[in-house]
Design brief:
Length: about 500
């Protein structure tokens, strides 16, 4: 009996040890795989006057959890949706995002189309120190369309989950697939599959727009039909603006922006910017392009003629242009144009000026058109999304994150990808969707995405020209920082949406 009791006790102890061991393993597994949290969703009610109409709307900020095929959470994507009350499934819905890659939707949301906007100087002056007023935005598009702002993985409050690697989302195609999935799920969750649908992006967001259009309309048989694509500060053909030795095209596409900028700063003379820009276009495509293509075989007499005209358009001296071999990169232009005044000009918006450490350098220390606005926008989006909309997180809002450093720019095999161009995605969509139209907004003083490069990219073979419409504004990359252009941009896009 005694031995039997010991045997029972031994078995019990062994069983308990095995169970404890299993529990330890489970605990280790749980530690390695974070517990799946329910997605955070916050909804608040608001009212405002937009486009001269009183609109009641719901604001919903929430996470969409993207998972692997096996159901493992991979990323949390934050969207901010503004939907008119009462809800109407026949009403248009517009999905918007910014660029970077790595930029949150703060710029379009707090600067252009959201129900609130941050008030910063409209005349290309620094935004200074806080507080930055958060104002009602009558230029919001809520009178014409519901709005869904998307922060792709690695931007805004959106983030990767657990052991997910950046390469799963950080690339042209991977990013586009993620954004397309978020759009499909929003349509499904909100009963909006048959609503008129618009897609809009700024800067790299226009690249993303083309790639997302391809995912929604061209890559699967489960098409999401679109009514329109809104391209703000467009970059589609990366060769057109690649400031690299040997690429003559970028000198051609940058010249009209240089002409507009020289005129703005009093370094050139013309009756109007529109007329001067048109002259610069013709010179760039004609005599200047022909001269550049001749390289070092350009005859001396022709070289002198080109140099004189180039000086007239750029405001730079013939001596400097000769030293630069008639080829001035934007970086050098920012530093040289106003060197005699001890000033540099902006890349995102050449209306802005700044002062460098000294006046002797070849290129500027920094971009005055970015550091002149970034603090105001960052403060505004944090105050609005955390305090007014109630989103709770310890994460920093990524206005501009570093994910672009690891971006996968490939869209094809090695030989085809050597010439990175997503404009053909839009051409295919236009050819296969008779109801699709393209709206293009460009600032004259934008060197990040020059307007002439956008014109070049969207005038290529295979892109129906009758459904591509350009609009031009008297500011730079974020033309909406100028009050007059924000109102004009909103008016133009309203007309575009209503004209479907």
């Amino acid at each position: 009996m005694k031995m039997r009791g010991w045997a029972v006790l031994a078995v019990a102890l062994a069983t308990m040890s095995a169970a404890a061991f299993a529990d330890d393993k489970d605990d280790e597994k749980k530690a390695e795989t974070p517990a799946e949290k329910p997605p955070q969703v916050r909804t608040t009610k608001h009212s405002g006057v937009f486009g001269d109409q009183r609109i009641d709307f719901r604001a919903t900020i929430g996470e969409t959890i993207l998972k692997s095929d096996e159901g493992t959470p991979k990323a949390a994507v934050v969207t901010i949706a503004y939907v008119k009350e009462p809800r109407d499934a026949a009403r248009p819905v517009t999905f918007l995002f910014n660029g970077g890659p790595g930029s949150g939707s703060v710029w379009l949301q707090m600067g252009a189309f959201g129900p609130k906007r941050v008030a910063i100087p409209s005349d290309a002056h620094d935004d200074g120190a806080p507080p930055y007023p958060l104002l009602d935005n009558p230029d919001s598009l809520l009178d014409s369309t519901d709005l869904v702002f998307i922060d792709p993985p690695g931007t805004g409050f959106s983030h990767l989950i657990g052991k997910t690697e950046g390469k799963e989302f950080y690339g042209i195609t991977a990013d586009a697939k993620a954004v397309a999935e978020v759009i499909r799920r929003w349509l499904n969750d909100n009963g909006r599959w048959n609503s008129p649908k618009f897609l809009g992006g700024e800067s790299y967001g226009t690249t993303r727009s083309a790639a997302v259009v391809h995912q929604l309309e061209g890559a699967t048989h489960n098409d999401v039909g679109l009514n329109g694509v809104i391209l703000i500060s467009t970059v589609l053909d990366f060769a057109a603006g690649a400031d690299t030795p040997g690429n003559e095209l970028s000198y051609i596409t940058n010249l009209p922006s240089m002409a507009a900028t020289a005129l703005f700063h009093g370094k050139a003379s013309a009756p109007s910017v529109d007329q001067f820009v048109d002259e610069a276009r013709k010179f760039a495509l004609g005599p200047y392009a022909a001269a550049l293509l001749q390289g070092q075989r350009l005859p001396a007499e022709a070289r002198a003629s080109i140099r004189r005209e180039l000086s007239r358009f750029t405001g730079l001296s013939e001596a400097y242009l000769e030293l630069a071999d008639l080829r001035v990169t934007p970086d050098r232009f920012y530093k040289e144009l106003l060197r005699d005044r001890g000033l540099t000009i902006g890349r995102l918006d050449a209306r802005y000026t700044g002062r460098d450490y000294d006046n002797a350098g070849e290129t500027p220390d920094d971009d005055p058109s970015f550091y002149g606005i970034d603090a105001g926008y960052t403060a505004a989006v944090n105050a609005w999304e955390r305090d007014a909309l109630g989103f709770v997180t310890d994460r920093e809002y990524q206005s501009i994150s570093g994910v672009g450093r690891d971006w996968d720019w490939r869209i094809g095999e090695r030989d085809t990808n050597a010439y990175l161009n997503v404009a053909p995605y839009l051409g295919q969509a236009l050819r296969e969707n008779a109801g699709l139209r393209i709206f293009v907004a460009q600032g004259y003083y934008d060197f990040a995405t020059p307007f002439f490069a956008a014109e070049y990219a969207l005038s290529r073979t295979g892109i129906p020209q009758d459904r591509v419409k350009f609009h031009y504004y008297q500011a730079g990359h974020m033309m909406y920082v100028r009050d007059e252009d924000r109102a004009r941009l909103a008016h133009d896009i309203r007309e575009f949406i209503r004209g479907r």
